[in-house]
Amino acid sequence: MWQTIPFRTPKVVFGMESIRQAGSEAKILNAKKALLITGPSVKASGALELIEQSLKEASISYEIHVLERATLEPTTDMAELAAKLVSEKNADLVVGIGGGSVLDVAKMAAALTGNPGNVRDYFGPGKVKNKGTKALMVPTTAGTGSEVTQHAIFLDLENNVKKAVASQAIMADVAIIDPMLTVSSPRNVTAASGFDAWLHAAEPFVSKNANPVTDALSLEAVRVISRNLGAAWSDPKDLDARYNMSLGCLMSGFALANAGTSLVHAMAYPIGGEFHTPHGVSLSVLLLACFKAIAASKGERLVRLAAAMGEKVEGVSVREGVKIALDAIHYMLRSVDLPTCLTEIGITDKSKAAIWAKDAWNERRLLGRAPRDLTVEDIARIYENAFEPYEG
Ligand SMILES: [Fe+2]
């Protein structure tokens, strides 16, 4: 079958110590003054000092804005305040340095300088019409893929729900991905963000939007991340594991930007919004129930995921292969101390399932590409199943 396949990506510079190219990349973007947006926990990575040095060498002036984090998730007002600073300081380049939350704020701050109104005006697909200030993203975790995607997720404090801006215009101009910066990631962040990256490969693979290009990226990302997550978690200074996790994350980020996530992410939004669980944990407690629910339509693809994870699936039936896939995913999550059901993180009130299901169902951008048609009741049943521990 012939297909038209659009492919989105910023310019990418990947490699050990690639951070030293920040100044020369900023120069190519004709930057004269940069606003560096970062978070309080970035200090440990040493990334900020390296970028400052590189910008000085390229004779680019800069100011630093450290985000104050009252919540785990970025909030809309953080991006609005940062956008104000970009304008006040006359910056012609926004540099985001940090995990996915910081990068989402930086991308949106840059976008708001070229578009009127507030973040809330841009929730949903394709709402940001104009390109804002140029943006260069530097991730310090191997996780969210925000550096290469057109998405930014915010906690809307008015309604206590997480919502996404999804527009081509907010994609960064350049992503510099230096695996050395992830070495200082705490163990729980390595696990949760690394698993998020794994799912950014696996979920597009079972989405309606998958195409041969994203399939190739998904399977390779699943292969690389499955083999390296445990090692990076066990020994933070294992540079090979860190390098491979960043590489896998880059590939899954491309899959995410071009085929997108669906059911698991849609169902994680209400959980993350209400309980403020780390994004990767909101996903890990739902994943097995979600993948069980899509086995009827995507069983063969789940078996291919198992093969990419290194499981032996030759000659087995789809039913057996799906079980092997779910067992392998459960093992991977347990081995890096990630919870696999809602009760494990203290969420026990099953009556909430119907309310969350309505919110998740409303995430049409994500559920539109889900591998099966789901009613609100179907989704509520998946939540109910996610309370139960996985028993194979
Ligand atoms: Fe995610």
Structure characterization notes:
The chain is an alpha/beta fold. The protein has two domains: about 10-180, Rossmann fold (3-Layer(aba) Sandwich), CATH 3.40.50; about 185-385, Dehydroquinate synthase-like - alpha domain (Dehydroquinate synthase-like, alpha domain). It has helices at about 20-30, 45-55, 75-90, 100-110, 185-205, 210-235, 240-260, 265-275, 280-295, 295-310, 320-335, 355-360, 365, 375-385; strands at about 10-15, 35-40, 60-65, 95-100, 125, 135-140, 150-155, 160-165, 175. The longest helix is centred in the middle third of the chain and has 23 residues, at about 210-235. The chain starts with 10 loop residues before the first strand and ends in a 7-residue tail after the last helix. The mean pLDDT is about 95. Fe (ii) ion binds near residues 144, 196, 265 and 279.
Task: Offer a concise description of the structure.
The chain has helices at 22-28, 47-57, 76-88, 100-112, 187-205, 212-234, 239-259, 263-275, 279-293, 295-308, 318-335, 353-361, 364-367, 376-385, and strands spanning 11-14, 33-38, 61-66, 93-98, 124-125, 134-139, 151-156, 161-166, 174-177. The protein has 392 residues and is α/β, with parallel strands linked by helices.
